[in-house]
Amino acid sequence: MGRRSRGRRLPQQQRPEGAEDGPEGGGKRGEAGWEGGYPEIVKENKLFEHYYQELKIVPEGEWDQFMGALREPLPATLRITGYKSHAKEILHCLKNKYFKELEDLEVDGQKVEVPQPLRWYPEELAWHTNLSRKILRKSPQLEKFHQFLVSETESGNISRQEAVSMIPPLLLNVQPHHKILDMCAAPGSKTTQLIEMLHADMNVPFPEGFVIANDVDNKRCYLLVHQAKRLSSPCIMVVNHDASSIPRLLIDVDGRKEILFYDRILCDVPCSGDGTMRKNIDVWKKWTTLNSLQLHGLQLRIATRGAEQLAEGGRMVYSTCSLNPIEDEAVIASLLEKSEGALELADVSSELPGLKWMPGITQWKVMTKDGQWFTDWDNVPHSRHTQIRPTMFPPKDPEKLQSMHLERCLRILPHHQNTGGFFVAVLVKKSSMPWNKRQQKLQGKSSESRETTQLGPADPTEGKPTDPSKLESQSVTGTGDTEIIQTTENLENNGNKRDGVCGPPPSKKMKLFGFKEDPFVFIPEDDPLLPPIEKFYALDPSFPKMNLLTRTTEGKKRQLYMVSKELRNVLLNNSERMKVINTGIKVWCRNNSGEEFDCAFRLAQEGIYTLYPFINSRIITVSMEDVKTLLTQENPFFRKLSSETYSQAKDLAKGSIVLKYEPDSANPDALQCPIVMCGWRGKASIRTFVPKNERLHYLRMMGLEVSAEKKKEGAVLVGESAGGAGQPEGEVSEEQRAGAAGSLDAEAGCDSDTAAGCDPTGAELPR
């Protein structure tokens, strides 16, 4: 297939624009959430009202409130992201500074409504507000609050995420040792929640668990990479597959290959999106039952594939932003029925106190797009059999239906807590799926068939309605896992795969679309580039150097990345069956003039929090005033820093350093979260290599506000750029300022819109 044909096919897998709830907002949906209003549009759909009134999903007497809520703009919701100590510092700043300034504030004679926490979200880390952008610009205090929200969102410390979208990760009950699969992950706001949960203990640089985040859309995978990289975790891998046929992965356990089963799976499937009417206004005129009828099969296939890959005792959350039982209870009932007791619905009614929800329904009917109802599969004429399937109806047997406990599903209605509509079901796996009973006995050689498909229907993106008329039909064939293992072993035995090199899968085995990724090459433990690094930074003997990788097989290694040992295991054993878009965090990058110093590689800010626990030299402890100086000046001379800092720096050789700020618990007014920064010890000055957004964030947490004008001029904050070459210390040229915003990383894994935070390989450093 030619490039043009591929380009034509890709949009068919995507949901309509303007429906995301990710941190970037991306399109009409995100913007509308902040603007608090829409252009005038007739928010009526008689078929929609007739359908849901007949199904009785809304409690008696609440219909008018339900429809009234759907016609109102959705409140903006934000979630404080990042790891615990930093998230708490942002929360402290929000509550004690910005929210206090909004109290008793009036704009045009109206009292401003102060943002309120979501009652059911733990530790007050999620808030909602009805403030529109128009109101935000009418008062200096509000403008300041608005700038804070925009800047912290850009730096990834605040995520603009719809309230109901936050529920599925919470119900997964993730622990740091869990292996997690996010089947339909883009744009990534739920994925970032999962990563945060893995890193609940910031003192553990490498949690045992990991997140594999998948999406069928190659382009949206890069948005997913962008969101995930903000958390700088070595435990996240982004892959590009059709969720309904995502391949089984193998891992090495004591020298033998076993199939990887996940402890937690998030299955947020493509849906008609009628729960998103408050922000996706197109749904009002486009809504028809045909959308749900066409998506039901895909949803069931994705959920089934997830259940197959779930470990016994594991938990899977199935969710949609649709209120339709055809996409909700019908999928769950069908999955439970064919699992023959292997799966059961968990009772999670007490897990999110404060959340209002309706129990799942046990009886429903199927309606065609022209309004014809069917209560039983037997009544469906043969001419309708391609459109209506038996799995869309509730089970006939009352005992079987009762044993399913469909009332344990959660349906969130918009008028109950001023949110969007949503559906969530939590499934627990009690035993192997009936067609896969031999999987444990064979130690990874499972008889379960592996579905291989043409690249077909779209994976979901959060809150995005899918146009089912554009979904392609899938042809499914069976390939046993035993065959897969044997094929892989044969390839390795034939010498077609080099040790430690994990490239994209060959095109003959899998249809690939989008960019061709660079390989992932693990650095041998006896590589000559490692001893100088170990010596220069006095790395602890426990440092896992086997987890270091690069993205090139030839020439000089310019960037060194790091993954957890569990993801290394996954990478090394699955390069023939898995298309990896990105994994690992950058920990070192080569200096052009590195040979002049004792070590050719300098530290990268992206991976410093992972690397820091293993570094035993070249660490300078700095005060809060030093941090302010270092972040607001380009190359401050030693004399501008405290005497304590100078005494630590004066005896160090030139080269890369770690700057560490430790909070003083005796001074509650000072910043109470630790800061670790990369820097460079020059001849008479110190420079920090911290991305612009991260600089802004730290300064704000220390009580320094940077005006929009100063940010534009670049006079105060300069990103991590190639500046400094040939300039006097403490000065920066206009060209360098411009370059800070436009420098790009030549290697994969560096996002253009965070270029100010990338480590340019050719940076010449202060001397």
Automatic annotation (TrEMBL):
One of its GO terms (biological process) is spermatid development. Pfam families: Methyltr_RsmB-F, Pre-PUA_NSUN2, PUA_NSUN2. GO terms for molecular function: mRNA (cytidine-5-)-methyltransferase activity; tRNA (cytidine-5-)-methyltransferase activity; tRNA binding. InterPro entries: MeTrfase_RsmB-F_NOP2_cat, MeTrfase_RsmB-F_NOP2_dom, Pre-PUA_NSUN2, PUA_NSUN2, RCMT, RCMT_NCL1, SAM-dependent_MTases_sf. The active site is at C321. One of its GO terms (cellular component) is chromatoid body. The keyword S-adenosyl-L-methionine applies. It is found in: Nucleus; Secreted, Extracellular exosome. Residues 1-35, 435-505, 719-767 are annotated as: Disordered. S-adenosyl-L-methionine binds at C184, A185, A186, P187, G188, S189, K190, D215, D242, D268. It comes from the Eukaryota. SUPFAM superfamilies: S-adenosyl-L-methionine-dependent methyltransferases. Keywords: Methyltransferase, Nucleus, RNA-binding, S-adenosyl-L-methionine, Transferase, tRNA processing, tRNA-binding. Residues 471-494 have a biased composition (Polar residues). Residues 461-470 have a biased composition (Basic and acidic residues). It catalyses: cytidine(34) in tRNA precursor + S-adenosyl-L-methionine = 5-methylcytidine(34) in tRNA precursor + S-adenosyl-L-homocysteine + H(+); cytidine(48) in tRNA + S-adenosyl-L-methionine = 5-methylcytidine(48) in tRNA + S-adenosyl-L-homocysteine + H(+); cytidine(49) in tRNA + S-adenosyl-L-methionine = 5-methylcytidine(49) in tRNA + S-adenosyl-L-homocysteine + H(+); cytidine(50) in tRNA + S-adenosyl-L-methionine = 5-methylcytidine(50) in tRNA + S-adenosyl-L-homocysteine + H(+). Its EC number is 2.1.1.203. Residues 66-430 form the SAM-dependent MTase RsmB/NOP-type domain. The keyword Methyltransferase applies. Belongs to the class I-like SAM-binding methyltransferase superfamily. RsmB/NOP family. This is tRNA (cytosine(34)-C(5))-methyltransferase. The lineage of its organism: Eukaryota, Metazoa, Chordata, Craniata, Vertebrata.
